[in-house]
Design a protein that fits this description.
The chain is an alpha/beta fold and about 325 residues long. It contains 12 helices and 12 strands. The chain has a 6-stranded parallel sheet, with helices on one face. Strands 7-8-9-10-12-11 form a 6-stranded mixed sheet. Helix 2 packs antiparallel against helix 5. It is globular. The two termini are about 30 Å apart. The model has no long low-confidence stretch (mean pLDDT about 95). The structure holds adenosine monophosphate and manganese (II) ion (2 copies). One manganese (II) ion binds next to helix 2. One manganese (II) ion binds next to loops.
């Protein structure tokens, strides 16, 4: 395990969960399957243990994850701070990525727990459990829940599976280990329906997502040496296709999959003028988290992101230049 030295023991986390009654669980802005899945997984386990639990996300529940059972428990942050004893940040690399409204909603909490798998996580909780060797926060929660003998209801079981499946590219990325497959097997033994869940996760995209793919392909660029592929999403396209934020989730894998490409980049204009940059690497020597950190972003060695100021052309020039420096330093 790649745990940072300041990690709490699972037993200590168990004490905090046992000794308190009210919890708010929060995940990062623009939540993905691991973010929402982690909230549902731990949330329903704690509820089954008789705790009072609120599940808050700055951006609410995205449409593409509304199939997850129990997902109607995910709420937008209430205006007034919640009366809760414990706040738990899940799958969130840095505290500001929880969002201002969510942070305000949790501001009365006496104890902060931070459970995550991003290696750039600075351990901002009172108690931290950061395991960057884990492919998903959902897998860490499986370990915590089973080790502490907490309840594992159907909502928790399915949410763990979706969290891990979406963060591993359907159990494909190198972070997937025997432990991951053993966990999946155990969840199936507990009654999980693989076919149904995978179909709901992967075979149920809105048509506009495929239209988005067409628009992105029109912007595709490949570097002269074939190592870097990038594409971009403009505001106008978002408007024309009536896109939702989650529509672009995972599309970067299409250009990551090009033979010879070692680094894929997705530039996206966000409402309000900020630029979202997603990066994926296929080579451990090319650590995209280090590139992201140069711009105030973060993530993992092979998948990282940035939110930076625009305009897009400027952000693109800066990030592509940094990538070039890292490629040269890595001797690729
Ligand atoms: P994405 O490209 O948005 O799917 O993100 C890839 C990974 O990097 C995910 O694990 C994110 O949580 C993380 N990440 C994305 N954007 C940021 C950011 N601005 N700061 C820190 N981590 C990020
Ligand atoms: Mn995530
Ligand atoms: Mn994750």
């Amino acid at each position: 395990m790649n745990a940072t030295p300041e990690n709490a023991s699972i037993a200590r986390i168990g004490e905090v969960l046992r000794d308190h009654q009210s919890f708010v669980l929060i995940s990062h802005v623009r939540p993905d399957g691991d973010a929402i899945g982690s909230q549902l997984a731990l949330g329903f386990s704690l509820m089954a243990a008789g705790k009072s639990v609120r599940l808050i996300n700055e951006d609410g529940l995205p449409d593409n994850l509304a199939f997850m059972s129990g997902s109607d428990k995910i709420e937008l942050p209430p205006a007034e701070p919640l009366d809760v004893e414990v706040a738990i940040a899940l799958d969130t690399a840095a505290k500001p990525r929880l969002g201002d409204n969510a942070l305000h909603a949790a501001s009365k909490a006496k104890i902060w727990l931070n459970i995550d798998h991003h290696k750039s996580n600075p351990s901002y909780g009172d108690l931290n459990f950061i395991d960057s060797s884990s492919p998903a926060t959902g897998q860490i929660l499986y370990q915590i829940i089973t080790q502490l003998d907490l309840p594992l209801p159907a909502e928790t079981r399915d949410a763990i599976y979706v969290a891990v499946s979406t963060d591993t590219g359907s159990f494909q990325y190198p972070s997937t280990t025997a432990k991951t497959y053993e966990m999946a097997a155990d969840l199936i033994h507990r009654g999980l329906n693989v076919g149904t869940l995978n179909s709901q996760t992967y075979d149920n995209h809105p048509y506009r997502r495929v239209e988005l793919m067409r628009a992105l392909l029109n912007t595709l660029e490949l570097s002269a040496d074939g190592l870097v592929a990038n594409w971009e999403l403009r505001d106008q396209t978002r408007i024309d296709l009536a896109l939702l934020p989650e529509d672009s989730e995972g599309l970067i894998d299409i250009i990551r999959a090009i033979r010879g490409v070692q680094l894929a980049v997705f530039f996206e204009e966000l409402e309000g003028g900020k630029i979202r940059v997603s990066m994926r690497s296929k080579d451990k020597r090319l650590d995209v988290c280090r590139i992201a950190l140069e711009f105030g972003g973060g993530g993992h060695a092979l998948a990282a992101g940035i939110r930076m100021t625009g305009p897009l052309e400027e952000a693109k020039a800066l990030v592509l230049a940094a990538i070039r420096r890292h490629i040269e330093a890595a001797g690729l």
